[in-house]
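Subject: design request, 286 residues
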């Protein structure tokens, strides 16, 4: 049965509580930290050797589609009424709007160490200790809006700029490309602006959302559900265009064996981008 992912601002009080409770249960069981470790393990950039599956590559969108789906399935094993909501940062742009309320994700980090002090994921409540990360800190941190050198969240115009591009991705299939929907959404310095869309949201949230351990902040899932929603919108808008590259780069390409083509297995799963292009029989967005 197809289930629905909702805008986080439209969740009822009961839906908010059940979503939070399911996340906290995954954390208690240790399962949540495995998601953090998996993301860290696949956080690989242009300058590193080996396959790039999760970032700076065409498979950025299908990789995170599968990743969010795995987390959602884990939540639904705890409570089958729960789905991952999305955060529309083009509308809810204030550090005090949803999802930054005490009954959802809690608010901003305090001055000094940026420790989150409110909501169910505050360290002092005892339910959200950081155990998997790239630093030794044990508490969740945020710096909403970036206190030094403030930045704004992406706008609807930023999304539309990406959605207008009919081509999914282009050679050399990395963070340097200025054309293609994928990097315009992922946001690696394309279009003459340092950070766009996805990357700018991570930087606006700050704290743990910077870097490979970003999964430690539960807002990660809401951000990537909204990203996934945009991919679905792009697919509907450009029905004749699909994931690229369709075939692996040739032997003379420095991207050979470094990116995932449409029909290749996407680590760490036994699934291809082609198989993830249509999720209409699993979920839809409200």
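Subject: RE: design request

Done. Sequence follows.
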């Amino acid at each position: 049965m197809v289930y629905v992912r909702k805008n986080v601002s439209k969740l009822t009080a009961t839906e908010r509580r059940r979503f939070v409770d399911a996340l906290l249960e995954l954390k208690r069981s240790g399962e949540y930290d495995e998601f953090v470790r998996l993301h860290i393990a696949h956080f690989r950039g242009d300058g590193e050797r080996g396959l790039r599956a999760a970032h700076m590559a065409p498979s950025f969108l299908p990789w995170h589609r599968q990743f969010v789906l795995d987390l959602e399935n884990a939540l639904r094993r705890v409570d089958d009424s729960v789905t991952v909501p999305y955060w529309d940062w083009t509308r809810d742009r204030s550090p005090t709007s949803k999802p930054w309320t005490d009954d959802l994700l809690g608010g901003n980090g305090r001055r000094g160490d940026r420790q989150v002090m409110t909501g169910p994921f505050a360290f002092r409540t005892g339910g959200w200790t950081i155990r998997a990360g790239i630093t030794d800190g044990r508490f969740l941190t945020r710096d909403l809006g970036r206190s030094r050198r403030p930045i704004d969240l992406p706008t609807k115009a930023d999304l539309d700029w990406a959605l207008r591009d009919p081509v999914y991705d282009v050679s050399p299939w990395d963070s340097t490309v200025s054309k293609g929907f994928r990097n315009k959404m992922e946001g690696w310095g394309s279009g003459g602006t340092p950070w766009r869309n996805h990357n700018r949201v991570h930087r606006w949230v700050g704290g743990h959302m910077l870097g490979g351990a970003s999964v430690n902040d539960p807002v990660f899932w809401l951000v990537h559900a909204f990203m996934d929603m945009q991919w679905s919108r792009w697919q509907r808008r450009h029905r004749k265009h699909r994931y690229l590259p369709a075939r692996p780069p040739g032997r003379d390409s420095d991207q050979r064996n470094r990116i995932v083509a449409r029909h290749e297995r996407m680590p760490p799963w036994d699934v291809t981008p082609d198989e993830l292009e249509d999720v209409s029989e699993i979920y839809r967005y409200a």
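The domain at 3-285 is CATH 1.10.1280.10 (di-copper center containing domain from catechol oxidase).
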